[in-house]
Amino acid sequence: MGETAGIKEEKRCALVTGGSRGIGRAIAVALAKAGHPVMINYSGNLDAAEEAAMLCATEDLELPVFIEQTDVSDEAGAAKLIQSAEEKLGHLDILVNNAGITRDGLILNMKTEDFQAVLDTNLKGTFFCCREAAKLMMKRRFGRIINMASIVGLHGNAGQSNYSASKAAIIGLTKSLAKELASRKITVNAIAPGYIDTDMTRAMSDKAIENTIKAIPLRRAGQPEEVGALAAFLASEDAAYITGQVIGVDGGMGA
Ligand code: NAP
Question: Going by fewer Cβ within 10 Å, which terminus of the chain is more open, N or C?
Fold first, then answer.
């Protein structure tokens, strides 16, 4: 590896929160195929997590895949998750904060608990994991943190004030951490997907999906693998000079 030339090469190890399904699963697979030992975190769906782990498995026996149940919105749970990744993988070099939920509704009807739940998982979960991982990465003077934002964190979306607020906050968190951690060779970037075909978006009505597709210059949904490919690049040595960025994977929607 470029930055450790002369020192025995070691594999960079990755944790993907919400890695059991959708975008997180595709990121875990892309990282495993790029040669990274991976830990997949999930919140409740063990079958999906096991399936994701099987997809990550490669011929290389030195590339273990672990799964770990944790609700990242729980402060103690998130800290335990990071410690577990460090122990089981040997060291945590790449953190992908992907776990996320929606509780959509117009502001007049939005329940406080729906606002809170989205902020807790999307924003606080990301903050808890970043804080614990940063402690380890700073000591090692290397790290890649990739936070999952969204196009709606940049542009907003009617019916998603809670979700948009959480994603806009993730962008602020990302840019601030990039500045704080750069001196230790830790890069922090955000990905802002547009409309990606996953369980999350399959919950939308047919009419809403049709209208969304019409608003996408490339006229189709993105695939989770298209986000996975960007995450694998941001985690790579080649991305060492990219930090504090918000990169869209949105078919031109945010252009
Ligand atoms: P998804 O298909 O609903 O998958 C969500 C993943 O997050 C699952 O692995 C789920 O675990 C996990 N998760 C949920 N709450 C969690 C918690 N409290 N702790 C730990 N894990 C938790 O969602 P997706 O569409 O792949 O979205 C992934 C990320 O991309 C989210 O941050 C989302 O906001 C963002 N995003 C998605 C789109 C899109 O169009 N799909 C667009 C922009 C941004 P279980 O399997 O155990 O439930």
Answer: C
